[in-house]
Amino acid sequence: MFNTKIAGLGYYLPETVVSNDELTQYMDTTDEWIQERTGIKERRYAIKHEETTTTMGAIAAQRAIDDAGIDKSEVDFIIFATLSPDYFFPGCGVLVQRELGITDQEVGALDIRNQCSGFLYGLSVADQFVKTGMYKNVLLVGSEMHSMGLDFHTRGRNVTVIFGDGAGAAILQPTEDESKGILTTHLHANGTNAEELAMITPGSHGGHHLGKEKFGFPSESDPGGIYITQKMIDDHLIYPNMNGPLVFKTAVKKFPEVITEALKKVGKNPGDIDMLIPHQANLRIAQFVQRILGLKDEQVYNNIQKYGNTTAASVPIALTEARDEGKISEGDLVCLAAFGSGFTWGSALIRW
Ligand code: UT7
To answer: Class for domain 181-193+242-351, per CATH?
Structure first.
């Protein structure tokens, strides 16, 4: 058995910066409300109809490949995490393979649908493949183009002001140094509140879980079955929805739980963490978690102020930035943690 190390990292953020003030053109919100409740000052939006989740992911991937000092032809497995895929199907895994121009190798491509925890789930899966010796260069990508699917009206403001676009990627490789690399990963889920942070239409539910009439089923336009009805469009049911307070309350409980679980597994305490990279959900959540664990400011990295919540991309973007800023050094104990829709959550401890 090997250990899995992060051999390369990269990220991509679209150039267009969207301030809180700009959002007030579309919805009843204020810079003050957004900063006070979320810590977010601005976010990035990709160029619509030009950039996609896949194209952003491919740029981040190429940067991670270069950072690892390998050739893209050496990638032997692809894992892609997103909640804003280019297509309903196929997933972005095959699309990023094509975008990178590595279809000749016909390596496997796996799509991860775990929203904010997507990168953690992907990392854990990659770890299993690498440490058993099955793959030598796993490309793991988290990418999101939220701006394409948000509700830019006041009714959608609690969700829309939070999210931003971006991509992050890592190359995972085996190492024989047992003291280095991923020490442990922990994944959890509880589907009880699946619809409390979700984008449920279009989908195959046909109103099954939440009532047929609400969604316009049976649909007269297509009695044979249909993913999306006119009623869904008319009633604005085609956007993400979130029970913010429930997500917040659950997140501030689950983040510390899953971080503590990982620390216990390797016989460590919060004080031993050199850098915690939490999923950038909301600065208030990260600050809450920091307080509960008794961590100092220099032990936690946050960049949500600049980029908003980029879901599956937030952990690899923050990890790369922290490393590039010299905040992570060889030998450091790095903790990654995420919580989000599903609800799903997870953590990883890495000896850098
Ligand atoms: O990535 C993981 C998933 N997401 C999260 O982790 C998010 C977790 N939740 C949160 O971050 C917070 O719940 C939010 C930032 C989304 C919302 O903050 P909150 O303090 O929980 O607000 P709320 O939803 O309880 O709403 C309070 C008020 C409401 O008005 P009334 O009913 O009191 O008059 C909302 O309509 O704030 C209003 N509101 C806004 N006002 C201005 C909601 N969104 C906005 C907005 N601008 N953007």
So the answer is: alpha beta
Q: What is the pLDDT of residue 223?
A: 63
Sequence spans of domains, the chain: 3-175, 181-193+242-351, 200-238
- At residue 219, does pLDDT exceed 80? no
Measured N-to-C along each axis, helices 244-265 and 283-293 cross at an angle, to the nearest 10 degrees, of: 40
Distance CA 199, CA 30 (A): 25
Among 30, 36, 37, which is best to mutate for testing ligand 1, by the most ligand atoms less than 8 A from CB?
37
Query: For the domain 3-175, what is the CATH superfamily, name and number?
Result: Thiolase/Chalcone synthase (3.40.47.10)
Fold identical between 3-175 and 181-193+242-351? yes
Does the pTM exceed 0.90? yes
Q: Whose CA is nearest to atom 28 of ligand 1?
A: 158
Q: Is any ligand 1 atom within 6 A of the Cβ of residue 116?
A: yes
- 307 backbone dihedrals φ, ψ, rounded to 5°: -120, -5
Residues 6+ apart with CB under 8 A from 33: none
Mutation choice for ligand 1 from 36, 38, 152, 158, CB with most ligand atoms inside 8 A: 158
